[in-house]
C-alpha cells in the first residue's frame, strides 16, 4: 500500500495524472503549446494533477465508510479519478476555457488588437472540412506541387507534411504570377500559409 501511495505521489509531482485532461484539451484544440511556450505544459499538468489528486483523496476517504476491503480503496479511487477526469474535462474545463478566451478577446477587442486563438497558425490554415485546391511554391515562386487537399499532420511539433491529390488536368494556375493575378482580380477567397523553416508558400483556394 505504501509503495502504491508513493507511486501516486511521484505521479503528482511529475504531473502524470493530469495528462488525460491535457491530452483531451490539446487534441480538441482548446490548448496549444509551441516551442516557445512548451514550459507552460508543466503548469497545466501540475494544476490538473493537484485537482485529480484532491479528488483521489476524497474518494479514498469516502470509500472508508463502505464495507469494502482496504485493498480495494485505492484501485477504486484511481478508477473513479480516471472517469471523473474525463467527465470534468468536458463539463468543467472546456466551458471555463471558452469563458476565459471570450473575456480575453473582449479585452483585446477594446484595445483594438487581434483576437486570440489557441490553435497554431498551421491548424488555423488547414482546419477546413471540405477538400480545396492547393498550390505550393518555394520562395523563388517555383511550383512544388498543386492538387486537391487530402490529409495533413496537425501535430505542431511534428514535421509539416500533408497529402495532395493531383488535378485531373493541367492548369494555368500552376504559374505563380498567373495564380496571384487570378486570386487578386477575380472574386476569389484565398489564404496563403507561409512556412519560413520549409521555405514554402501554400496558397489555399476557398
Automatic annotation (TrEMBL):
Regions crossing the membrane: 12-30, 42-60, 72-94
Keywords, comma-separated and alphabetical: Membrane, Transmembrane, Transmembrane helix
Domain of life: Bacteria
Keyword Transmembrane: yes
Protein name per its UniProtKB record: Uncharacterized protein
Organism: Candidatus Enterococcus myersii
